[in-house]
Write a structure and sequence with these properties.
single chain, Fumarate Reductase Iron-sulfur Protein, Chain B, domain 2, 3 domains, four-stranded parallel β-sheet, 7 strands, binds iron/sulfur cluster
Length: 414
């Protein structure tokens, strides 16, 4: 089935009940402008398909409504008709990138810049040594067929944070112009590398070391690819499906060349894309995909008296590939608490919009941070680098790996 047929089918199910609007973070953050909400996106996509079917092209302005969608899937979990407005936005972005369906080019240049950099440098911001520097001096087992695959996700945050802060200082048109130039001359993006949040970089590198230490303590042998590439999530989420497939094939070849059979991921985006999405698009992409917590059952942790508030990552609690191991481990560390919005109607940290819509992103992350604080818990626990970078607004926010390593009963030598 073509994307147009898929989009037609998905949007035609909508009965306009508005349930999805009550949970969509971007609707409230955009002052309730309907096209920035879940139902608005579905109805807009329906109109767009109608125009394309009738006239061959659509004349609608669709760029901001679809690119601003967070892909959180909160809407899908409350929709009585089974419509997924997040997936509708993904498909609509795919039509935007296939320029033949719209009267004018509505591709976001910042998105194009990110995609160009991934395809050329295997990293959304062209990072290289900045990705693997955390691993210097650590010992890996080259003969293992288990790979520790960070995908550079934790490492990326210190750089994307500064870029989004810079973006806030300029007009959107200026940013789009700069991004357009960088897309034409991708090496320019490397000029941004000296700009990063030093504290966040050190913190993220230490989180990676905590994960390494936990796996070692559990007795797992694993290798690491020095030049490890980005997992490709942006390609899928921003609608560049052809590039996504080409990139996935590259990843598959890299894993095979390195004799990898088992992949240990450390974040929700990489876990989902490798486990559930690439196998749908790429024949033979059939590695065993794990999360690092899957290997820690034999470790003991000391339990404290604190209330630990868990902010669930959307890709673990609201997407189809549910993963609840963090809850099990948080319960070993203290009393778990949840904010009002949790489980399959959780609330996004706003991070996915950070590079394209920094103001929207910070409005959503402020709201979520306040919700988490209002629980009265002692610590806020995240299990995703994007959530951590967006929600760590004071010193009560921790990545799960940090607490696990600290509370590990260390009767085992690393
Ligand atoms: S909840 Fe589902 S059926 Fe209701 S408006 Fe949203 S997409 Fe349409
Ligand atoms: S995926 Fe999230 S941001 Fe996008 S329409 Fe659904 S609820 Fe709104």
């Amino acid at each position: 089935m073509s994307i147009l047929d898929d989009l037609d089918l998905e949007t035609s199910k909508c009965i306009s009940c508005t349930f999805c609007e009550s949970v969509c973070p971007t609707l409230q953050a955009s002052d309730y402008r309907a096209i920035f909400g879940a139902r608005g996106r579905v109805l807009l996509a329906r109109e767009m398909v109608k125009e394309i079917r009738n006239q061959g092209k659509s004349s609608l302005d669709v760029s901001d409504p679809f690119y601003s969608c967070l892909d959180c899937y909160a809407c899908f979990n409350v929709c009585p008709a089974g419509v997924n407005a997040g997936h509708v936005s993904e498909m609509a972005k795919s039509l935007i990138t296939h320029k033949k369906f719209l009267n004018k080019n509505q591709e976001k240049q910042v998105a194009k810049m990110i995609i160009t950099s991934i395809m050329k440098f295997n990293s959304p911001l062209g990072l290289k040594n900045e990705i693997n520097s955390w691993s210097y001096g650590l010992h890996f087992d080259e003969n293992s067929d288990y790979l520790l695959y960070t995908g550079g996700m934790y490492q990326l945050m210190a750089y994307s944070k500064i870029l989004s802060e810079l973006e806030r200082k300029f007009k959107n048109e200026t940013i789009e112009k700069i991004a357009e130039i960088i897309s034409k001359y991708p090496s320019i993006i490397k000029l941004t590398h000296p700009m990063y949040d030093d504290n966040l970089k050190k913190r993220m590198d230490n989180i990676l070391k905590s994960i390494y230490n936990l796996l070692k303590a559990a007795g797992i042998k694993f290798k690491y690819i020095d030049d490890e590439p980005y997992p490709g999530s942006f390609l899928y989420e921003l609608g560049y499906i052809d590039d996504f497939i080409e990139y996935g094939k590259r990843l598959k070849d890299l894993f095979i060349r390195n004799n990898v059979k088992n992949i240990i991921t450390i974040d929700p985006h990489t876990y989902e894309i490798l486990k559930a999405i690439y196998p749908k698009y790429i024949e033979g992409f059939n590695f065993n995909v794990y999360h690092y917590l899957d290997f820690l059952d034999n470790l003991n942790f000391s339990k404290g008296n604190e209330n630990l508030v868990y902010h669930e990552p959307c890709h673990f609690s609201m997407h189809k590939e549910k993963y609840n191991e963090p809850i099990k481990f948080i319960c070993k560390l203290g009393e778990i608490k949840f904010p009002e919005r949790h489980g399959n109607t959780s609330y996004c940290c706003g991070g996915p919009a950070e590079l394209l819509y920094p103001d929207l992103s910070s409005s959503i992350s402020n709201k979520r941070f306040n919700e988490l604080k209002n629980t009265g818990g002692d610590k806020i626990i995240t299990a995703c680098p994007i959530c951590f970078a967006n929600l760590s607004k004071d010193d009560t926010v921790f990545d799960l790996a940090e607490i696990l390593e600290k509370r590990l009963n260390k009767n085992i030598n690393f």
